[in-house]
Amino acid sequence: LETHQYLDYLDDEIENTIKPIINLQSNLSGKKSIFRGLYLGDTFTQDQKNAISYGTLDNLFLGDYWTMGGINYRIADFNYWNYGLGGMHLVIVPDTCLLTRQMDLNNNSYYSLLYYHADIRAYLNNIVLPTMIASNFDNCIAQYYENLQSNTNKFNEVEARLELMSESMVYGQGILRTDSAPTYSINQLALFKVRPEFIYCYQNYWLRDRSGINYCMVTENGMASYASNYDPTVGIRPCFALAGVPMYTPPSP
Q1: Sign of the CA dihedral with 136 first, then 252, 142, and 20 last
Q2: Which of these, 129, 130, 119, 95, lies nearest to 237 by C-alpha position?
Q3: Phi-psi region of 217 (alpha: psi -120 to 50; beta: other; left: phi over 0)
Q4: How far is CA 183 from the centre of its chain?
Q5: Which among 16, 169, 177, 231 is least buried, having the fewest CB atoms inside 10 angstroms?
């Protein structure tokens, strides 16, 4: 073999030897522990969709983000929700609040209002999801199952797409919550475990847990706190599951 052919041969041999090691580190356990934080662009590309659909997750790492409409949408975890989602998915959390809003606008009783019934949840799914989220990601927003306590059923299994986070998802445990309602979102998101500075976003934002007659929130410096559900200054920083194929049908205009 000539020199250049031999070097090409060595390159192939090295790649064949190292690639399985790289792929091993790039599996879900590796993806959940390695922060990259790379800018992925301002569109959700077909290559990125394929990487999710085919389960390779090529060039998608924890902390990578898209910037759309001035908001950074960051990969916060991989395959977080197992129940109701049979395929690969990413968990996306914006770096900043999308807007500010009261937890509830209907003057419900402090004692009877739960997140499942709150106006903010309907607003997330009926307004924010179709206008700010789904269109940015080509309707590849996956549906999963969540357990959100209702006024009549503690074990209330619901279909979920866009939700507020819980104390467990942010901090890995309950801190100020006083409710003991079951949930399927019991683990800390990998992003907040590996890079806890992303917990704070320089603005107070709602969590879905109750703290007595109030609601839990994260303060602008990342501390656990709470606020009245009538407080209009607290932000909305939701999470959603991103799939590789369209799974969401926008409502008719």
Answers
A1: negative
A2: 95
A3: beta
A4: 15
A5: 16
Check the CA dihedral 42-43-45-50 and report its sign: positive
What type of residue is 144? Y
| pTM of the complete model | 0.87
Report CA-CA distances (Å) from 21 to 12, 17, 44, 120, 225.
15, 8, 28, 45, 43
What pLDDT does residue 12 have? 60
pLDDT digits (tens, 9 = 90+) for 172-188: 999 999 887 778 888 99
Q: How far apart are CA 167 and CA 176, in angstroms?
A: 8
Torsion of the alpha carbons at 244, 245, 247 and 252, rounded to the nearest 10: 120
Structure-block tokens of residue 160: 């979920």
Structure tokens at 53: 């659909």
Location of structure tokens 């959603």: 240
CA distance linking residue 24 with residue 139, whole number of Å = 31
| Rg value, the chain, Cα | 20
